[in-house]
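quick one, 120 residues, struct below
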Amino acid sequence: MSAIATFAAVNIDCPDPAALAEFYHRLTGWEITYSDENYGAVSGDVTLYFQRSEEHRPATWPNAEVPQQSHLDFMVEDLDKAEASILELGAAKPEFQPQPDRWRVLTDPAGHPFCVCVKG
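---
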């Protein structure tokens, strides 16, 4: 079967695209390929685009009042070391952690939940 389309990128709404591009650049080491007051992008294994949304409301995970709708997963060698480093970048850690020995749920500076998962 031949593909109809190829995957291009993930687009994420946020209040400050340049700041979110910088956060994910520092998290992944991917190149910032675009950054202004309305749009930002980092490119590596995939491309993440960030677009200004004046009415962006951070997810309230695990409470579903404002659902997360989607989230990103990142693989790491050591959960504790990765968590500490990512928190230094400006991430936050929700109190509820469903399986903290296997993955950690963190939120980026705009409040989007993402997971860091142990490789293997």
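The chain has two helices and seven strands.
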